[in-house]
UniProtKB/TrEMBL annotation:
This is Helix-turn-helix domain-containing protein. It comes from Pseudotenacibaculum haliotis. SMART domains: HTH_ARAC. The chain crosses the membrane at residues 6-27, 65-88, 100-118, 130-148, 169-187, 193-213. It comes from the Bacteria. The keyword Transcription applies. Keywords: DNA-binding, Membrane, Transcription, Transcription regulation, Transmembrane, Transmembrane helix.
Length: 347
């Protein structure tokens, strides 16, 4: 290999190799357990596999079709993982939503079925151009969906406003880097097939430089929950969440669990524990214990009126209280009288 080709191979492969290393860091070793880091790791892994495949194919045109198919299949998931990453960051989600699972499952099944029934090696005419074009269009669709989610931050950035945070700059950089790589591959017939890998290497090291110069803010960048720590819900959003919360509490009778934690309920309505606490405090004016105890007391009142054979202690445990004393205290605080007085006054 000539020196110029060796240098070209080195710089084009550098981004793909280091991208795999960084992706493994985000997937398994980053301190913050926020779900966005998993999606970022998966996104970097998919795009690194894709660029790595193009590097080896460029310098070795006889590369096995199995590697070619593997690289193109990874390409199918670049856009979705970018979209999931941006959704988890901008929406402050720290758990995988059901609809995201549907997206991924559909694409995975499609990739496995098509790959098994129509392998690249024996169906080159189908893969070029039809399957490959379809893969790039899927990548583009999810990129556009990501752009829609980023429009508010992008508008602020274009206006040069101070509201643009380091986290916004980071996510926008990831987005435009992804788009640049997509364009490099999609329009490679105007330039060169290796351009996509070189673009990724260049953007990868720009990303590293950004992290280096913003290392003091990296905790916020990789733990998006903190960014939204003081963000209040809009009235319409709060009303919708409270409605969902009430349905979950009533239909699943979560309050009957004496060991129920706020994190358990928060997960049910797809909020962080902090966001859930803020929802209760700002919109219902109560803490978690008071909120749950109201449901328990309402259930206790029904049992006190429906069956006089139940002991007060049995009712307490049945409704989710850990002890008779906490039941008495909560009941009197909410109703104004003791459970015994309530029962006798309604007989």
């Amino acid at each position: 290999m000539e020196i110029s080709k060796e240098l070209l191979f080195f710089f084009s492969a550098l981004g793909a190799f280091n991208g795999v290393i960084l992706s493994l860091y985000f997937l398994f070793f980053v301190k913050s357990r926020h779900i966005s880091n998993k999606f970022l790791g998966a996104f970097l892994l998919m795009i690194s596999i894709r660029t790595g495949k193009s590097v080896f194919f460029y310098f070795n045109p006889d590369l096995s079709f199995h590697y070619l198919q593997f690289g193109l299949t990874a390409c199918l998931f670049i856009g979705p993982f970018l979209y999931f990453y941006i959704m988890s960051v901008k929406g402050a989600h720290n758990s995988i939503k059901k609809e995201w699972i549907y997206h991924f499952t559909f694409l995975l099944i499609t990739a496995l079925v098509v790959g098994f029934l129509y392998p690249f090696k024996t169906n080159i005419d189908l893969w070029r151009p039809y399957f490959i074009d379809a893969i790039y269009y899927v990548w583009l669709v999810y990129t556009l969906l990501s752009l829609y989610k980023l429009l508010p931050a992008l508008k602020e950035a274009l206006k040069g406003r101070s509201k643009v945070t380091s986290s916004d700059v980071w996510v926008l950089s990831i987005f435009f880097g992804n788009f640049a790589v997509w364009a490099s591959y999609k329009f490679s017939y105007f330039t060169s097939y290796i351009t996509g890998a070189l673009t990724f290497s260049f953007l990868f090291y720009l990303m590293i430089l950004f992290l280096f110069f913003n290392r003091k803010k990296s905790k916020i960048i990789f733990n998006p929950t903190e960014k939204y720590a003081d963000k209040k819900f809009e009235s319409s959003e709060a009303e919708a969440l409270i409605e969902v919360l009430k349905n979950v509490m009533s239909e699943e009778s979560l309050y009957k669990n004496p060991n129920l934690k706020s994190s358990d309920v928060a997960k049910k309505i797809q909020l962080t524990t902090h966001q859930f606490s803020q929802l209760l405090n700002d919109n219902l004016g109560k803490n978690f214990a008071s909120f749950v105890n109201e449901y328990r007391i309402e259930e206790a009142k029904k049992k006190l009126l429906s069956n006089s054979s139940f002991t007060l202690e049995a009712i307490a445990y049945e409704c989710g209280f850990n002890s008779k004393s906490t039941f008495y205290t909560a009941f009197k605080k909410i109703v104004g009288i003791t459970p015994s007085q309530f029962r006798s006054s309604n007989l």
